[in-house]
Amino acid sequence: MHTDPLLVVVVLLLLLYRSFGIAVENNQCTTSCGEVNIGSPFRLRGDPLICGDLNFELACINNHTILDLYPGNYSVRYIDYTNYTIRVADTGLQKGNCSSLPHRSLSCGNLFISDLYSCWDYRPFFQDLAKTVLIVGCTKAVDSHLYIDASSCLDGVKFSNSFGTRRRLYAMVDANVSSVEIGCTIEHMAIIPWGADGDNLHSYTQIHEQMVYGFELSWLQKACEIRFEDCYPCEMSAQHQLSCKPPALNR
Predict the structure, then answer these.
(1) What are the phi and psi torsion angles at 46 (to 5°)?
(2) pTM score, two decimals?
(3) Cα–Cα distance measured from residue 47 to residue 31, given in angstroms and rounded to the nearest whole number
(4) How far apart are CA 235 and CA 246, in angstroms?
(5) Whole-angstrom Cα distance, residue 213 to residue 176?
(6) Is 96 helix (H, G, I), strand (E, B) or coil?
(7) Distance between CA atoms of residues 220 and 227, nearest Å
(8) DSSP state of 216
């Protein structure tokens, strides 16, 4: 019996459409990984294309949520769908091991955020979401409240700038490069939450706990694009209400 090729194509398309409908109907979009809730615009790798936005794809590895973001991989600690932020920490950091550091030096200045994430927030006004911690090696002891001794944790860590020289290691929270003393070199950088009060961080162990806790990145702009389609700049009120000026008024 001769079969019409066009009829076969139509039947296959109908079967694919039915399979697609069943996938959506059965809610095959993964809603969590470990303790992290996954919702739009986020999605997990391997989920149906209907789930979330491919630009906000996450991986679920051994029940841990991972964000791939240049220049490295980050463990996702929490996604806030009210404030439109995601809290992440470098995968090189280990809880309870103060000698662990981010795989690469990080600051909001050298972290490539692109147009997906931002180290800044707009609620209800422009503000930072993170602080930079400088790990510095000094040829002699420094007597300053800005310098928090980190040698007991980091003595065994090899830094590229050390050249085998015995150096005293310190952490500086939210300090300017101009505050680094002569004879000291920046060995590494890390990011901690903006809410971490440097005046209350009296030991490197406390600073490391903040690194492990993670820092926030904002995805507010994407939330506004979903709601308003064409929106820049986007703002959020103290009541978490999104607002956007028409493009013509932003010029």
Answers:
(1) 100, -15
(2) 0.79
(3) 10
(4) 12
(5) 23
(6) coil
(7) 11
(8) E
Smallest CA-to-CA distance from 85 within 123, 140, 51 is with 123
Low-confidence ranges of the chain (pLDDT < 70): 1-27, 71, 110-115, 122-126, 161-166, 232, 245-251
Q: Which of 87, 207, 232 is nearest to 148 (CA)?
A: 207
| Structure token digits, residue 230 | 């064409």
Torsion angle of C-alpha atoms 219, 225, 230, 235, degrees rounded to 10: -50
Note whether 153 and 208 are within 8 A (CB): yes
Helix-strand-coil percent breakdown of the chain, rounded to 5?
25, 30, 45
Residue 130 buriedness (CB in 10 A; 0-12 / 13-18 / 19+): buried
One-letter identity of residue 1 = M
**Distance, CA of 137 to CA of 117 (rounded, Å):** 32
109/243 Cα distance (integer angstroms): 27
What SS3 state is found at 36? Answer: strand
Contact of 58 with 65, CB cutoff 8 Å: yes
Q: Which amino acid is at 95?
A: K
